[in-house]
C-alpha cells in the first residue's frame, strides 16, 4: 500500500479516536487497531502522540478552511450572499465531520498552548475572510458610513465566534441542517450589520439605545 494511503488511514483513525475519546484518553494502541496497523508503524510514520495530534489539527483545519473558501468563490455574488454561502459551507463541513470538529473546537483548545495556537491560526484566517466580506459590504452600500478597522474586525471576530458556538449546538441538536444554522446566524448578524452600515449605533447613554 502506498505510504500516503497508509498514512491517511492512520490520520483518519487518529481523528476519530481523538474526537470521540479526547486527547488524554486516546491511546496509540487504539489508533493503530482502528487503522489496522501495528503501533510501531504508527510511530514510524507519525512520530509521537503529540506530533500525531498536531498533524490531525493541521489537516482538519486546512480542510475546514478549504470548504469555507470554496463556498465564497463566486465573485459576482453580493457580500451577503457570499457570507451566506461561506456559513452554509462551514456548518455543512462541521456537521459532516463531527470528530474533526471535536478535535478543532474542543480538544485542541484545552490541551496545551501549542495545540491552541494551531487552531488560533485557522481562526485568524476565518476572521480575515469574514473581514474582507464585511469591507466589501461597506463599499457596496451607498449609505454606509466610513467604518473603522476596529469596527469591521470586531464584528468579524464576533461572527466567527458565534459560528463556532452555533456549530457545536447544531451538531448536538437532531434535525438542525447547515442551512438552518446559517440562516439563524444571518438573521442575527446581518440584520444588525445592515443597521450599522446605515449609520445606526447603540449607546447606553441615549434613551432607546440607538443613534441614527
From TrEMBL:
Which keywords are on file for this protein?
DNA-binding, Transcription, Transcription regulation
Coiled-coil residues:
none
Q: Which Gene3D superfamilies match?
A: Tetracycline Repressor, domain 2
Report the InterPro entries cross-referenced here. Answer: DesT_TetR_C, Homeodomain-like_sf, HTH-type_TetR-like_transc_reg, HTH_TetR, Tet_transcr_reg_TetR-rel_C_sf
Key word Protein transport present:
no
Q: Where is the HTH tetR-type domain?
A: 4-64
Q: Where is the signal peptide?
A: none
Q: Know the name of this protein?
A: TetR/AcrR family transcriptional regulator
